[in-house]
UniProtKB/TrEMBL annotation:
Pfam families: Peptidase_M17, Peptidase_M17_N_1. This is Leucyl aminopeptidase family protein. GO terms for cellular component: cytoplasm. PANTHER family: LEUCINE AMINOPEPTIDASE-RELATED, PEPTIDASE B. The lineage of its organism: Bacteria, Pseudomonadati, Pseudomonadota, Alphaproteobacteria, Rhodobacterales. Belongs to the peptidase M17 family.
Length: 463
């Protein structure tokens, strides 16, 4: 099913969006047969509800989407998508303004509600049974469709199992994206990582049957510069500090940071933002074999800092560190990393919020304003410098897994900050997975924070 608006020329059913508190007034304005039909069917305009009203021949003459109350809407997002999912297949056109909400966000939610991951269900791949929406007046069609398509890319990448989404396949996905938008791409693979001074990426990924690699994509020739760094751990066994089975089950999503920055990159390129974009993805699989890196090993990073490995299951920060050091050597106006980095972040804020770390209050202000505008919630976490001593083991410059378990997301972020001198550095510690279906967000892989970043870029980069 395409995540796009219906054709403007398609015949459509008028769709009225009505709050429950306004239903009685709205019914008074309708013909008697309409109000009688709605009342007799017990429709109360609850949030996410919908109903069709037939004409004299039994064909739908209009549809009503329940929009609940303002208080109810505060407890969720993508409310129009909830109603869209309950409407039968057909084409609909909004007949009134949406109350107290952002039309672009709600229409994006409608498009996203059509997303399904069907790659492994061939019989269902051609079925199109979703209600489609005409693009409402005042909506930037190209932008909203680009956001929907980019989110679908992120979801598809995360949802694909590691058997079909290892480092080589992630590279292939990057090359496809680069080809689509005429971006440049280069890849450093295997032992060449040592030659090119990316030793920690090599150390983490060398035990896999697929060689580790650093993917470097660049797009745009003028304007301010943005570098995105995404954790691309395509599967994480934990290494020699092997995860228990229950903790390994979702590890196909450990490349969620890479998937999310690729979705964000597609948003930027598809809307032709006037910037110079660079995307760095360390793509590895953290596996177990005779040459796996070990607890107690001391690694020397690209930056020259030494790292004592106290847990091979804290590998994401190691590969990100080398990639961030490389990013920091450039001339970016803004550096952003995204990673499914710590369970501690999930314990702190749950699966819906995108926790992030940033020392620049102007970046924070722009991000949080954008997140509120477009319903892509973020939550600032502290780069708490007094905890720096927790990541200093004494035998080396840094410890990749401090003992004690306290402040795990903060210490991971502090670790990454050691590799970036740039004052405008922001790190997102995302989950990348929706554990239960919600409107426009089915269970499975999901982008987090990308739309907020995209919406904030004009302010962040003075576009």
């Amino acid at each position: 099913m395409p995540l796009s608006f219906a054709n403007d020329t398609d015949a459509s059913i008028p769709l009225h969006v009505v709050e429950s508190d306004s239903l009685e007034v709205w019914l008074d304005e309708q013909p008697t047969k309409v109000s009688t039909w709605i009342t007799s069917n017990g429709f109360s305009a609850d949030l996410g509800s919908s109903i069709l009203v037939p004409d004299d021949n039994g064909h739908p003459s209009m549809a009503i989407a329940g929009f609940g109350t303002h208080k109810q809407r505060r407890r969720g997002r993508f409310h129009l998508a909830a109603a869209a999912a309950k409407l039968p297949a057909g084409t609909y056109a909004l007949a009134n303004d949406l109350p107290d909400t952002d039309l672009a966000t709600e229409t994006l939610g409608w498009l996203l509600s059509a997303y399904q991951f069907k790659a492994y269900r061939p019989a269902q791949q051609t079925s199109e049974t979703h209600a489609r929406l005409k693009c409402p007046d005042g909506i930037d069609r190209q932008k909203v469709e680009a956001l929907a398509t980019s989110e679908a890319l992120t979801r598809d990448l995360i949802n694909t199992p590691a058997s079909d989404m290892g480092p080589a396949e992630l590279e292939a996905a990057c090359r496809t994206l680069a080809d689509t938008f005429s971006a440049k791409i280069s890849v450093i693979t295997g032992d060449d990582l040592l030659t090119e001074n990316l030793p920690m990426i090599h150390a983490v990924g060398r035990a896999s049957t697929q060689a580790p690699r650093l993917i470097d994509m660049a797009w745009g020739t003028t304007g301010p510069t943005l570098t995105l760094v995404g954790k691309g751990v395509c599967f994480d066994t934990g290494g020699l500090n092997l995860k228990p089975g229950a903790s390994m089950g979702l590890m196909k999503k450990d490349m969620g940071g890479a998937a999310t920055v690729l979705g964000l990159a597609q948003m930027i390129m598809a809307t032709n933002l006037p910037i110079q974009l660079r995307v760095l993805i360390p793509a590895v699989e953290n596996s177990v074999s005779g040459n796996a890196f070990r607890p107690g090993d001391i690694l020397t990073s690209r930056k020259g800092l030494t790292v004592e490995v106290n847990n091979t299951d804290a590998e994401g920060r190691l590969v990100l560190a080398d990639a961030l050091a490389l990013a920091d050597e450039g001339t970016a106006d803004l550096i952003i990393s995204m990673a499914t980095l710590t369970g501690a972040a999930r314990v702190a804020v749950g699966p819906d919020l995108s926790p992030y770390y940033c020392d620049d209050d102007t970046v924070v202000s722009a991000l949080e304003a954008a997140a509120a505008r477009i319903s892509d919630p973020v939550w600032r976490m502290p780069f708490w410098s007094p905890y720096e001593k927790m990541i200093e083991p004494g035998i080396a410059d840094l410890d990749n897994a401090p003992a004690g378990g306290f402040a795990g997301s903060i210490t991971a972020a502090l670790f990454l900050r050691r590799f970036v001198e740039h004052p405008r550095y922001t790190h997102f510690d995302i989950y990348g997975w929706n554990p239960a279906a919600t409107p426009a967000r089915p269970k499975g892989g999901v982008g987090m924070g990308a739309r907020a970043i995209f919406d904030a870029l004009p302010d962040l980069l003075k576009l």
